[in-house]
């Protein structure tokens, strides 16, 4: 663990929408986090410029800042919607920036846990699966489970936007337990 034995997690919401269900899910996770876990939700995504290889080595300040937030964390938790059956552009854009420099990026060997919420019925399964594929390339181990696929999202929050479904809350709690164990196993050499 990195800082004072606290397990630091960088939370990334894959939606910029003001009333985003995914941000609410991440906020619920931050509240639920055990005492030794510090889940810090990044506010950077909306400021990240569109990825352009011409700007590698001369990245925007927001890109440096997001990289620093991920570097300072023991793990990353992403809560993402699904757009047209795939990963939202804003999230993929940020991940492309984070994936550089190839072979020594802040994502290299960084444990990642995935969650997603949607008003629809498939719980963001497709975007989460696509993210697993992306993290093969950045060599970031992705927690196998518990899967958190929140379908019909509005039914699981109260009018104040608090996550109230006990089953989902239990799974989020379980995710922290497994993510911490998973991160502690992640000592292998990447070749
Ligand atoms: C362009 C577009 C495409 C979408 N495609 C999907 C989809 O493939 N699957 C899905 O479950 N929801 C889809 N949705 C609905 C989103 O899940 C919904 O807008 C959700 O609330 C976005 O996440 P957020 O609440 O975190 O902002 C789509 C929405 C938009 C605007």
UniProtKB/TrEMBL annotation:
Tree of life domain: Bacteria
SUPFAM superfamilies in alphabetical order: Flavoproteins
Pfam families for the chain: FMN_red
Enzyme Commission number(s): 1.-.-.-
InterPro entries named in the record: Flavoprotein-like_sf, FMN_Rdtase-like_dom, NAD(P)H-dep_reductase
EC class of the enzyme, as a word: oxidoreductase
Alphabetized UniProt keyword annotations: Oxidoreductase
Domain NADPH-dependent FMN reductase-like: 9-153
GO molecular function, one term: oxidoreductase activity
Name used for this protein in its record: NAD(P)H-dependent oxidoreductase
The species this protein was found in: Prescottella soli
């Amino acid at each position: 663990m990195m800082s004072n034995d606290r397990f630091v997690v960088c939370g990334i919401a894959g939606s910029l929408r003001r009333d985003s269900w995914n941000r609410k899910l991440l906020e619920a996770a931050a509240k639920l986090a055990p005492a030794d876990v510090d889940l810090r939700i990044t506010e950077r995504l909306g400021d990240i410029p569109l990825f352009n290889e011409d700007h590698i080595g001369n990245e925007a300040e927001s890109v440096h800042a997001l990289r620093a937030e991920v570097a300072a964390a023991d793990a990353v938790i992403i809560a993402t919607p699904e757009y047209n059956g795939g990963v939202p552009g804003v999230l993929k854009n940020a991940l492309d920036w984070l994936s550089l420099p190839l072979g020594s990026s802040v994502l290299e060997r960084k444990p990642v846990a995935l969650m997603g919420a949607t008003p629809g019925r498939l719980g963001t399964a497709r975007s989460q699966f696509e993210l697993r594929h992306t993290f093969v390339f950045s060599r970031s181990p992705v927690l196998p489970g518990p899967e958190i696929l929140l379908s019909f999202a509005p039914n699981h929050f109260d009018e104040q936007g608090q996550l109230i479904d006990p089953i989902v809350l239990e799974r989020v709690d379980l995710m922290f337990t497994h993510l911490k164990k998973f991160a502690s196993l992640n000592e292998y050499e990447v070749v």
